[in-house]
Sequence to fold (673 residues):
Amino acid sequence: MILALSLSFIAFGALALAMFGHFKSCFKRPPSQVQQRVLTLVGWGLLALSFVVLLGQYETAYATILLFGVMSAAALTVILLLSYQAKRLPASMAVAALLALVDFSLFV
Amino acid sequence: MKETFFRSMTWLHTWAGLAVCWLLLLIFFAGTLSYFRHEISLWSKPELHKSVFQDYDQNRLAQQIAQGQAYLTETAPDATRWIISFPSERKPYLSFGWADAPKKGERRGKFHEHVVDQDGQQMITEIRDSRGGNFFYRLHFDLHYLPVVVARWIVGLATMAMLIALISGVVIHKRIFKDFFSFRPAKGSRSWLDAHNISSVMALPYHLIITYTGLITLMFMFMPWGALQQYDGDVRAFRADLNPARIQAKPSQATAPLIEAAGLIDKVQQQWGAAPLKQVSISAPGRDNSRISFTLNSEQRVTDRRDLLIFDGVTGQLISKGNPESATYKTYDTLMALHTARFADWALRGFFFLCGLLGCAMVATGTLLWAVKIAQKQQKVIQSGTKPTVGLRLVNGLNISFICGLPLATAAFFYANRLLPLDIASRAQREVDAFFITLAVIALVALWDGLRGAQSWRRWRQWLLLGALTFAALPLIGAVTSGQSLLGNMIDNQWTLVGFDIVSLLLALALGFAARQVRQSKLINLNRSATSPKTSKARAGRPATPKTAAITRETRDTGLEEAHQ
Fold:
């Protein structure tokens, strides 16, 4: 669960940063084309990965439903961070990555 | 129609939404609380807070069934139905219950439940009469004080309007992907629009599914013609074929001895192995058409069906295995499960709850956005001293009645549950009355404010603060009236009760935060150039402040102040 949540959070963070305006509000400088493309791919990739993680923990129907819940929570967190503490988003994503790694290593 | 498709859809979204939004807020609010109805019910019965909790135990099933049957034979020999409920994750206690024969005009008789103490011997029989979480569950589709069929038709029409509003909303949200992460706080109506968009889009799959499946759950009421055609109008025959497990034949007059239900466990385990059971139900005990049903605990399977094994109560023969298997049935069952979420464990249930809250936010921000838009249009009129139009006053009144009223009414319900004397007549109904009386009081105050043209953000702040205080005090009241404090429950691992207290405190924080925001933020971004003589004088008299926020607040304050006169 923590793994899936962290991955989704990073995924939505990446998808947000792939957008011009949000990248600027976090990093002060505009994103390059390459950066935008990479962030988009990473975002979608991590979303798929978090679904795979859930499929590993729960049976298919349950995991699918759970995925939508996880996505709602993760995307909402990204939006709140972007609106009120934009500069903290990249750092939060790094913390989430750490959490994901810890959770992964503990249960694999 | 309007000039363009887009304008037509905007019109449709607005009016489909406005027609039903306040009722929808009630439905969404009650429905969201219903995700935790068993937990709320447990909280509402402090008699069950100590010494009843036990886990499901496969090895003690036979003994528990035997004990239950003996107890019920002694306590309720004339009941139409006995139910022995085993401990489950959400209802962690063993109970023996029975249903009386229905009185004239009733569909079901009153249900009584006695809970077994942890020691396995004592019975807790004096449990306060309270509907607990089931009040909210029924409220969200049966409403209250109305005949059930009428209420369900109203709710169904509101749901249809919501589905239309959802789809038209998606259609008109052209920038749905570009604005996916956009939220611009403190910018007046733009912020309300952003909030409305976010609360809708973040949980869009949920909103669509919950609305659609909500209609599906009552589909045989809304669109019965296909079925009735097949059955020549015989509704009972249709229902019997649809749901054989639910058919409860009236107890026959002839008596016949009931076999020991515990003796059937072997046959049950032949069919189901060691799968956990939810309950054993004996209908028409002691009569010759008695039935003993074993219900499977479907745990986390995405299903709403009740897997049953029905045995004859006199001979012990297996009569039926419950509901029919078919693709159609499975589809219907899955759709029902998606709505009721009975399969969800605590984590998924929490997500459903979050999405339900987003749904409430969606409806509330929608109506508030509408109120702000109308206020903006009438801004000059208001500032010149006339009262706002009836339309605006009505919308403001309804908004405050429902948005502030529902949380306060819920708090009143919980307070009534703990503070009403235990022996008054129709105690459960009195608790419900407390809910609606609170709503009525807030609505009446809003009406009074509206008639005087004195609606203001101050009233919002007052109600929100009151809500914050009442929810903050609720754990304390709960502790005093039940003898178990929050810390005590944490120590005892009673996480359901801990969860209730924590959510209560979180709600208090949220309401307090909202009250604070009502005071400070730019709720209505009144046109800064449109200043009244009063504001200009005030501005001249005060030292120049660089903060536009302060000036806008003055403008807004004075603008609304003038609405009083």
